[in-house]
Design goal:
The chain is mostly helical and about 120 residues long. The protein contains 5 helices and no strands. Helix 2 packs across helix 4. The longest helix has 19 residues. This is HTH cro/C1-type domain-containing protein. InterPro entries: Cro/C1-type_HTH (IPR001387), Lambda_DNA-bd_dom_sf (IPR010982). It comes from Methylobacterium iners.
């Protein structure tokens, strides 16, 4: 396998302040933190609540206690509880995929985008 030469690649700065950012990447309002799409500010919260309802409904459909679902999905019980409360925003995708697998559904079914 041939070695890849990086000598022709431009240097990437370690930090890039707003002045150096391309115009398309600059925030519209730098003092306001990003909270979803400007036209859909509550979308992340709605997504978490849909995920919470769908995980709980699927778990109860199988009659699984939280502990058993956590065991089957190889996640902590606290993760399942947080997701079912709608507080699973920091949960990684692989944990959500394992939950979906354990419940016999797809990830898109859990987040409400499945058909």
């Amino acid at each position: 396998m041939a070695a890849c030469s990086t000598s022709s690649l431009p240097a990437i700065p370690r930090t890039m302040g707003p002045a150096e950012m391309p115009q398309t990447l600059q925030p519209r309002h730098p003092e306001t933190p990003f909270r979803g799409m400007p036209d859909q500010p509550d979308r992340p919260r709605a997504l978490l609540m849909t995920l919470a309802r769908n995980v709980r409904a699927a778990r109860l459909r199988f009659g699984l206690p939280v502990e058993d679902l956590a065991y089957l999905a190889d996640v902590e019980v606290a993760v399942v509880e947080a997701i079912e409360r709608g507080e699973g925003g920091s949960t990684d995708v692989s944990a959500l995929e394992r939950l979906a697998w354990a419940l016999g559904v797809t990830l898109s079914d859990l987040v409400g985008t499945g058909s």
